[in-house]
Design brief:
The protein is an alpha/beta fold. Helix content is 41%, strand content 22%. The chain contains 10 helices and 13 strands. The protein starts with 5 loop residues before the first helix and ends with a helix. The radius of gyration is 32 Å and the shape is rod-shaped. Helix 1 (6-18) crosses helix 4 (62-89) and helix 5 (109-119) packs across helix 10. It has helices at residues 6-18, 21-27, 32-46, 62-89, 109-119, 132-140, 155-158, 207-219, 233-241, 286-298; strands at 51-53, 58-60, 94-100, 123-129, 146-149, 161-169, 171-176, 187-188, 198-200, 226-229, 247-250, 261-266, 273-280.
Length: 299
C-alpha cells in the first residue's frame, strides 16, 4: 500500500473548501482530470469515499469531514518543520542535561541558567545535583551533556573532556554562632581553632578541594581533627549550625544563610577554589554549544 503524500492532502483540502472540482483545479493551477484521479487514489488508499459526487454538487462524506481538520493540521506541522529544524540546529530547541556540584548552586549556576533561559527559552534544561566524581563518570558514559564541577580533571578524563573555568574564589570559615574566639575578629587565624572538630568533604569526592582545606591548616602549622564528613554543602553548613564543628567553605557559600552559622574571613593567604564546566569533546549537540557560548560571553 502506497503512503499518502502532502500533495494529495493539499488537493483534498482544496476540493473540500471549494466544493467544486473545477474551481479547486484552477486554485491548484492544474487541470480537473488529474485532480479527480488524485482524489480517487486517495480514497482508494483510505478505503472509503471522501466526497459524494453528483452532476450538480460535491459534498463531504462523514469520512471526508473527519479527515479535513486532520489534513489541515498535518500540513501546518509540515510547514513548520524547516523552522523547527533550523532552530534545533542553532541550539534554540532541544534538551540540555546539566549536572552541578552543590557549591555552584550558590555562585555560578543561577546566573548562568538565567542568562541561558533569556537567550534560549525553548531549550529544556534537565538539572541534577551530583558530586564531581559522579559527574565525571556520567560525562564519560554520555549520560549528561555538561557538568559544573571542581577541577582538576583526572588524566584519563582529559583525553575525552574539555573544560572551561568559571569561578575562582577564596575559602572562608563557617563556624557556630557565638564562639568566643570569633568575637571582635574580622579575619580569624586558624591556629585559634585547633581544638575544634573540622567538617569536610571526603577526599574521594573532590580531592583538590579536600587538599586545599587541609593545606590551609598545614600552612598554619597544625593538623585539624576531622569530626564529620559530608558530601553536600548544605549538609556541612547544617552540621556547623548544629554545633558539630567548623568548616572551610568557598566564599560563595556564605550566600547560604542558616541560623546558628557565622562566616568569617581566614587570616593569611588561602588557596583559591575553582568551579568550572566540563563536557565531552565529541558532543556536538547544538543546545550544549549554545550554553557554552552563553557562558563565554559572560567571561
Amino acid at each position: 500500500m502506497n503512503n499518502i503524500d502532502l500533495r494529495q492532502l493539499r488537493q483534498f483540502i482544496a476540493v473540500a473548501e471549494e466544493m467544486h472540482f473545477g474551481r479547486a483545479a484552477a486554485r491548484l493551477h492544474m487541470t480537473q482530470p488529474p485532480l479527480s484521479q488524485s482524489i480517487q487514489a486517495l480514497e482508494a488508499l483510505l478505503g472509503t469515499p471522501l466526497f459524494s459526487r453528483t452532476q450538480r454538487s460535491v459534498a463531504l462524506t462523514p469520512a471526508g469531514a473527519a479527515l479535513l481538520p486532520e489534513a489541515r493540521r498535518i500540513l501546518q506541522q509540515a510547514a513548520a518543520l524547516p523552522a523547527l529544524a533550523q532552530r534545533a540546529a542553532a541550539g534554540e530547541t532541544g534538551t540540555l542535561s546539566l549536572a552541578f556540584v552543590s557549591i555552584a548552586d550558590y555562585s555560578v549556576l543561577p546566573p548562568a541558567l538565567r542568562d541561558f533561559r533569556e537567550r534560549y527559552p525553548h531549550v529544556h534544561i534537565d538539572l541534577r545535583e551530583a558530586t564531581s566524581d559522579v559527574q565525571l563518570e556520567d560525562l564519560l558514559q554520555g549520560r549528561i551533556d555538561a557538568g559544573m564541577l571542581i577541577p582538576p580533571l583526572p588524566d584519563k578524563a582529559k583525553v575525552q573532556l574539555d573544560y572551561l573555568p568559571l569561578l575562582s574564589e577564596p575559602l572562608v570559615l563557617a563556624a557556630p554562632t557565638g564562639m568566643k574566639t570569633l568575637r571582635g575578629k574580622h579575619a580569624v587565624p586558624l591556629k585559634m581553632l585547633e581544638d575544634i572538630p573540622l567538617i569536610i568533604f571526603p577526599r574521594r569526592i573532590a580531592p583538590a578541594f579536600h587538599d586545599a582545606i587541609l593545606g590551609c591548616f598545614r600552612a598554619a602549622g597544625m593538623t585539624p581533627r576531622t569530626g564529620q564528613e559530608a558530601i553536600q554543602m548544605q549538609t556541612i553548613v547544617g552540621l556547623v549550625s548544629a554545633g558539630m564543628g567548623i568548616a572551610l567553605v568557598p566564599q560563595s557559600v556564605s550566600n547560604l544563610k542558616r541560623p546558628g552559622v557565622e562566616y568569617r574571613a581566614i587570616a593569611g593567604k588561602t588557596p583559591p577554589v575553582e568551579t568550572g564546566l566540563a563536557w565531552r569533546r565529541d558532543n556536538d549537540a547544538p543546545a550544549l554549544h549554545a550554553f557554552l557560548n552563553t557562558l563565554r560571553k559572560k567571561k
